[in-house]
What does this fold into?
Amino acid sequence: MDIFVVEGGKRLEGSITVGGAKNAAVAIIPAAILSGDICRIENLPTISDVSVISQILVQLGAKVTQISNSVIEIDSRNLTGFQVSQELAKNMRASYYLLGALLGRFNRARVPMPGGCYFGVRPIDQHLKGFEALGADVGLRDGVVSLNAPNGLKANHIFMDVVSVGATINVMLASVKAEGLTIIENVAKEPHIVDLANFLNSMGADVRGAGTDVIKIRGVKELHGTTYSIIPDQIEAGTYMLAAAATGGDVTVNNIIPKHMECISKKLVEMGVSVYEYDDSIRIIRDGGLKACSVITMPHPGFPTDMQPQMAAVMALASGTSSITEGVWENRFQYIAELVKFGAKADVHGRVATFSGVEQLNGASVKATDLRGGAAMVIAALAAQGESSIREIFHIERGYEQLIDKLVGVGASITRKTVPDPPDKDEK
Ligand code: EPZ
It folds into this structure.
């Protein structure tokens, strides 16, 4: 197995450039098949989730050409498949965007229930409710979702019971070619929802209101190919901002949209960190101690749940008592059992975690419990005195491109090593 080995306690200094947004990329790539044409997607992150979703399109009959590291061309003119294999679907959450994209293209889809990080139950009832409202029959058998709309899709007025990124995206994908005006209320407003709407519009769709609570989509008969560049990754940028804060560093994060970083910047300022915003970069400097703060995660524009584990690693070092209330997921604190191995003092009660800041973390042997929990382990290891090792790094590599190179570029000591697998627990 591969692990990261980190020699911590080094101040990060220099600049890091972030890549394209993972959660926009994994929606835009399947969305491209709605065009039945050639789409060129730029500023893609080089991460495993992007290669898995691209492989799904290839399996369905699309031609996907890697033009450069961050650019692909998707030719879906000859794509005819409408069934996604279990093998690929189980590797990632976003495989379920093929439900909306295939339904929108062919009026039918068969997609196994998706994989992805485990944060307690992850229902998809709002996705299915949206598809049904557009006229699809929904079936669920042996873990495979089947959608069929033999008479085509018809616009409807849909009210989401919960604010869901995935359901908003899936219903957008299914309705761009549905006949009439679809109105979706109580939608998610994350930057990647706006990015998807812009991408769909660049293919000739008529999507309005993305970024507000109500999205209106007037169905069009045909879409066409496009060239589109994905927005920068808010969460990757935030992760490096917090790594700078945790190590008492001075790091400029480039290729960002400062507006997307506001809730994270404001928390860092509350914690005593200096934050300087420029047109498309942000500089983080910490030369004093960290002060405790509290965070409640919420759908956008609230503090992103995808930043809470990384924030926990910083809170572990902040003087006083900090807290995180998880407002999105039922159970997103599994990583805390690993964080305490560095010497963090943390307690979890239901959806609230509290941290009594310690002066120093110490190197530890830990595992990544999930993608962002893994990022928190990297931040803690960078800040800790001594050597740390992080197992199960495949979680981290689903979402962070060239993590080692980027961190080494700002002075971190982090390497990837192959070590023997641990003995099977059941072996005698
Ligand atoms: C997306 O997951 C992201 N994944 C997650 O990022 C992120 O944590 C999450 O949005 C919230 O921002 C991708 O974009 C691929 P939701 P998603 O539907 O769409 C409940 C990362 O680290 N819900 O917005 O699956 C659900 O249980 C990943 O990059 C329903 O009840 O999240 C949760 O409590 C991890 N019924 C809440 O809504 C539904 O039908 C928000 O989930 C759908 C969701």
